[in-house]
Fold these 3 entries.
Entry 1:
Amino acid sequence: MLQGKDVLGMEHMSVEEIELILETARYFKEYLEDKTKSIPSLKGKSFVNLFYEPSTRTRTSFEMAAKYLDAEVINFNQKISSAAKGETLKDTAVTIQMMKPDGVIIRHSTPGSAKFLADHLHTPVINAGDGTHEHPTQALLDLFTIKEKKGAIAGLNVLIAGDILHSRVARSNIWGLKKMGAKVSVVGPLTLIPDHIQHLGIDVYTDPEEAVSQADVINVLRVQLERQQKGLFPSLGEYNKFFGIKAETLKKAKKDVLIMHPGPMNRGVEIDSIVADSTRSAINEQVTNGVAVRMALLYLITGGESSSENLN
Ligand code: CP
């Protein structure tokens, strides 16, 4: 179903494809918990991490995922590449394609850059975050985490809190969660919520204490200061006071509410440490799940089939 395909976003991913990735990732998660379990080998396959923006989790977990599967991974370093001499993204990508990798994983600050590459390359392209547009592998690992922790996704109330305007994670999560049958809400200052977002079929709140009361899951997003062109709120202190997810914000929340954050966190801004490090938090497990989901994607785009016959 996914062999040779690009993974560009959740907007155009089918429910069947999402379910296949989550089911395959469940198998690889078992391997991460018990490395004596045998897994299929992608020996002889190679992937290029083409990262034009900083990353810890996504770049490293794609690298770990490839290595666990015995594949080669090459990390492109923009600063010491010919991009620093003015080579275009397309020329760089075509040059890399001519070295015959089995997949290119791209992170870039320009929305649409992953689709642009996919239109010009024969090699499958995985979007590891394109500006404010989409971050599908983050949404997939978030869906995996919610399913693992809550048993199902359909019917859950998922609240996305924070800087929705600049967040590719928010967009990909909204598409993915809606497809999987969750009810989605957002909360944040109106200056950080895109106009007309209700048209995606979600509720909008500006009061975090009101918003959290119905939530089964709260996915807290980073305030993305690097993408802001103008001051959209007075100060980080005020942001924390009025919109940060703190112990007192959660007084009206369900006892078993699941706290998530894609990372990196601004502790004391969008989330307080007492919440991030609490027993309700799945933030560290999200990182492990990111490796499992990315193993599943590398396996599936290179022709693996998820079935008990192939994976046991
Ligand atoms: N969540 C996420 O994309 O983190 P990185 O920027 O560290 O990859």
Entry 2:
Amino acid sequence: MNTLTIAIAKGRMGEKGVSFFNGTPYEIVRNGDSRRLVFEDKSGTINFIFVKSADVVTYVERGIADLGIVGKDIILEENKDIYEILDLKFGTCRFAIAGHKDQFPLKKDGVLRIASTYPSYVESVFREREQKIEIIELGGSVELAPLMGLSDVIVDIVETGSTLKENGLVVLEELDSISGRLIANKVSYRFKYDAIQEIENVLQEKVALNTAKAK
Ligand code: PRP
């Protein structure tokens, strides 16, 4: 019988999350390129479900999944009632305010128009500031917004910085650091503490191994 359900984001981030279980008793059994969204691990202890990254936190908050692996960017944007229990230290990048370099220091007398795919996060960043803002929510390719005059600046993820550079933009202010995180449902964390602790220990070892390898 499966003891735990773990929600993992589909796509790039998710694949890295899956690799954390390789070589452990909880390795995911996947036969070929299936479109299935539910998989078991080798030991039959865990059910893995694959969902959109923003939905990982929803599944975990509502207790459908006991644990989740998701980027800190999603955790900050979704602001759900969950525990963040481990920094998995992959997919490392950061949030930043970016724009044309003559916009520094970042101030505008009127309303500063900010394009982003993370509207709630932007709101939280500017809540305590004097600057008036208008958030323009986009689905992606936000670097285009200041180039086309849709916004003054953007708030987005910067990893290598090459997307900004290729579009003639610069980081105006660095914000929160981002990486993959292990999250837990609050009730599961209490009532399935031992099982969760075991997974946490396995992942912690992997993090230590990856960190040692990177040195
Ligand atoms: C992300 C992000 C930036 C880019 C940053 O976009 O939104 O555009 O990566 O990476 P870099 O600093 O290494 O250039 P993603 O590729 O996920 O696609 P999107 O534009 O559709 O969001």
Entry 3:
Amino acid sequence: MLTGKRILLIIGGGIAAYKSLDLIRRLRERGAAVTPVLTRAGGEFVTPLSVSALAEEKVHSDLFDLTDEAEMGHIQLSRVADLVVVAPATADLMAKMAQGHADDLASTLLLATDTPVLIAPAMNVRMWDHPATRRNLATLRGDGVRVSGPNEGGMACGEFGPGRMSEPLEIVAAIEAALATGPLSGRRVLVTSGPTHEPIDPVRYIANRSSGAQGTAIAAALRDLGAEVIFVTGPASVPPPPGVTVRRVETAAQMLAEVQAGLPADAAVFAAAVADWRVENAGTSKMKKVEGRLPTLSFAENPDILATVSKMGAGRPGLVVGFAAETDDVIAHATAKRARKGCDWIVANDVSPATGIMGGSENAVTLITADGAESWPRMAKDAVARQLAERIAAALGAG
Ligand code: C5P
């Protein structure tokens, strides 16, 4: 619930602005008050009348409105909220925010505010992928701005790809997560999860049996303690938790790129089952069956994401946690792995088929730190996740 919370909602100029009308309703249903700000371009897509009728508040749109200024100055307006939400955040608004422009009411409020900011980007896929937008996004993340979406799918302009604004309920979940108070409030944690798929050709791939259940539970537990969670997931069989920033990938190489784009972070938890190898001679067209001839696949080593981040020097998260799925000699192998990879902790588990852990709902783990090995009783993956999240909070001095 958002009872008693005030959201300053800046509606930018994109077709997704229509979803912001529903967002206002959803926020109001949950007890939040919404102060709406409509940019000039936003006003081309939704009317001030619809916005103010749904918010049951006056819409602000003009920097030099004398009545507004007499009632509540724009600096004051930027600070009365618990959270500033920009939805849709257009490429132009993101650029203005990253550069610190203040040439209209929305950008001035964003520059003047000392309140946390959440953006829900929405734009054409090419604009989203453009290096300028990538740079602006990285700058905004570095400035502590939270990001919801965008989602992948068909777009109003007829193209397909990432750029669709998050759905209203996804933005609500991100708002609830941003306002959650807990020991990890104000901290950012990156989590990898799920398997990776390494293509053989456009229709075949090599994968593993990871369901993503443990990584998903860890992301949810960190979110519940108030952390901003960047969740980089391979093609898992469980859906990502609401209220986290989801980055979907297929291959290990893509996972490394998204992890690097997701930093800096206070802590990083590498729960993904990353494929050790990729097919070096993966084809761009489907391999044909040839009578009497078997194909030969040659392999190349994948980047070790955990080791890369553990050894990155400047910008390394303060706490790096790896996982070790072993089938025998669990503690000895995991202890050696901790040293080899250079991470701070290893969460080791026995995934021999008899345990039913891989793909199951329970886990029995041993936490390996510089102080030694600590075996936890077998419990639900959710419970393992909560205990681990609490240990992470304590280690970050946030307990
Ligand atoms: O070497 P192994 O796969 O057993 O190590 C497991 C740990 O390393 C996990 O935390 C996993 O997420 C991480 N890992 C990685 N990149 C790889 C291989 C493993 O991040 N290429």
